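This week, study the protein below.
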Amino acid sequence: MTALSSLTARPDAPAAEDPRTTTARRTMCALALGLAPVLLTIGSLLSVSTSDKAAQEVVDIAADRNRFFVANLLLALGAAALVPGALALAHLVRAKGAAWMTTGACMIALGGGSLAVAIWSYNTVGFLGTDAKVNRDGVVSLFDRANDSFVVGLPWIIGIGGLIGMIVAAVGLIRARTVPLWEPILLIIGPVVAFVGGDGILGAILSLPLVIALIALAYESLLLVRQRARAESMTGAGTIDLTQATGSGMPAQRGMTEQDQPRPQASL
């Protein structure tokens, strides 16, 4: 076999799925879904209020650079956590309403990732640009151009699409009826109220419906992971292997015949 063929050759059979790996992945995604609103809320509380005018905006950031950096770091991490969180949300719907949920989850993941990039870019420019060694006039000119730039605004626009994706996903949850009805209803109300609320204390208060909805759905996802893990363990322990037989001539349970075999190591 040549080097090129060895690189392009496909494996004869796919590797068997390890249930422990699947459980670990889904658990991490569910935790991310619950952590995202917490980080976003804390970041909103710590955020520095800035002016719409470029010159005053730079002054506002420079007045408390460290707080500005920490707040936007938390906001960026919270937005990024929506990407794996969207996967946990999608696992709650498998049949009726799946098309709505899949569309909504993709919008949430794309919007969360785009918003994380936008916030971190703004954070980097704002924090480094207000350093004492940086020319202030140049920074003001940069902010002035950026405030009217479509290139800068595009990631923020896509990020708003993530909020719309939550509403679309909520429709899928309502159609599927896999969670209590109040959770998708909050997921519809929450993004609208949070978008209007803005930042600061008022924004944190108005974002509570969204925070409660996402944490509740993260809990539902964790419950689903535990139920499926328990069902898989019971299935593996109770199935009968007709190809094996005990000394009495009766087929043995698969869990008994395979208990001495080494288990695959879980990997993330």
Observations:
- Residues 98-129 form the longest helix (32 residues).
